[in-house]
Specification:
Length: about 190
């Protein structure tokens, strides 16, 4: 079983040409801005990509990227379980851009909201709906309590069930042809 390592943006920038960069965010997030040369394989498609990633890791080190470092750390854990060595970027693209490094944007693709913003919209809407419905139908207030509890659990465990659900929406899914093209490029 491989171990997971982490690098800071300055370290990654010095060695960027030596990495095969894999961005595990949704296609919309990727289109909004990604590291130069990054390949997009959403986290929920990582299992499908394992053979291609194994091939790519034999040629050089994999650098896993997401917005904040949480999803890329999860990806590294999954890869380690498959005996594929990988490194995660501490702080993700947010820290990368904050340190002045460039992000490439896909002007042809429609950029979706970042996952964190989608979660805030969904959670806030559900809380408001629970409160509004609760004025007429008191048990509906439990919806707000459930969402609040979910957010507390999410913060305590550093996981997000709502993000996992939202990632399955059609606008957050890669087109099959895009994913296949990425996997083919990594397998060569």
């Amino acid at each position: 079983m491989s171990t997971t390592t982490a690098v800071h943006p300055a370290q990654a920038a010095e060695r960027l040409s030596t990495y095969t960069v894999i961005d595990v965010r949704t296609p919309g997030e990727y289109a909004a801005g990604h590291l130069p040369g990054a390949h997009n394989i959403p986290l929920d498609h990582l299992a499908t990509a394992l053979p291609a990633l194994k091939t790519a890791s034999a040629r050089g080190e994999l650098l896993m990227i997401c917005a904040s470092g949480n999803r890329s750390a999860t990806a590294c854990e999954q890869l380690a379980a498959a005996d594929i060595p990988a490194t995660t970027l501490t702080g993700g693209t947010t820290a990368w851009a904050a340190q002045g490094h460039s992000l490439h944007r896909d002007t042809a693709a429609k950029a979706a909201w970042p996952m964190e913003r989608q979660v805030r919209l969904a959670a806030g809407s559900l809380v408001l709906a629970g409160l509004a419905l609760g004025t007429r139908y008191r048990p509906a207030r439990w919806l707000s309590a459930a969402v609040g509890s979910g957010l507390v659990f999410s913060a305590a465990t550093n996981t997000c069930g709502m993000a996992s659900l939202l990632a399955r929406l059609p606008h957050n899914q890669p087109r099959t042809t895009d994913l296949n093209t990425t996997l083919d490029a990594l397998s060569r």
